[in-house]
Amino acid sequence: MLYKKMKNNFFFILLIMLTHGVCAQQNDTSLIRLNRVATIEKFQFVHAFEANKDTCLLEFTKFDKDAQILFHSVDLHCIGWNNIEEKWYSYSNNRLDSLEIRRDNLPFAKSIFKYQNSADPQTTITYFTQEMDTLMSYNTFYRDDHNRLDSTVALRINNHGNKNILRTIYRYDVNNYLVQQISSDQKGEPIDMISYERLEDGKMKSIAFTTYGEKPSFKQVYYSYDQKGRIASTLDTQNRKQLYFYMKNGLLNNVLTYNGNGALEVEFLYNYSFH
Question: Which residues contact 117 (CB under 8 A, 6 or more apart)?
Answer without folding.
Answer: none
